[in-house]
């Protein structure tokens, strides 16, 4: 994640901070947004599995 993207996300998160918000909540939100970005990039690169592929791999792991 670029520093510009981090800044954008922190501003977005800060708009929703209230008196009950903890620092851990902010870390979790930032991590979630980062994970979403990474997943979208993987999808663009074609690094995704179909539902059937996931089922097949899961079945192999559970043998």
Could you characterize what this model shows?
The protein is mainly alpha-helical and 63 residues long. It has one domain. The protein is 71% helix and 0% strand. It is built from 3 helices and no strands. Helix 1 crosses helix 2. It starts with a helix and ends with a helix.
Nutshell version of this structure?
It is built from 3 helices and no strands. With 63 residues, it is mostly helical. It has one domain.
Key words describing this protein structure:
elongated, mainly alpha, 63 residues, 3 helices, single chain
Class by helix and strand content?
mainly alpha
Helical fraction equals: over 70%
Count every helix, treating DSSP H or I runs of 4 or more residues as helices: 3
Number of strands: 0
Describe the secondary structure blueprint for this structure.
Elements: H1 3-14, H2 23-44, H3 51-61
Helix pairs in contact: 1-2
């Amino acid at each position: 994640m670029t520093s510009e993207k981090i800044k954008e996300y922190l501003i977005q998160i800060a708009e929703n901070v209230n008196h009950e918000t903890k620092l851990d909540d902010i870390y979790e939100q930032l991590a979630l947004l980062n994970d979403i970005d990474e997943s979208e990039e993987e999808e663009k690169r074609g690094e995704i599995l179909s539902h059937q592929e996931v089922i097949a791999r899961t079945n192999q792991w559970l043998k």
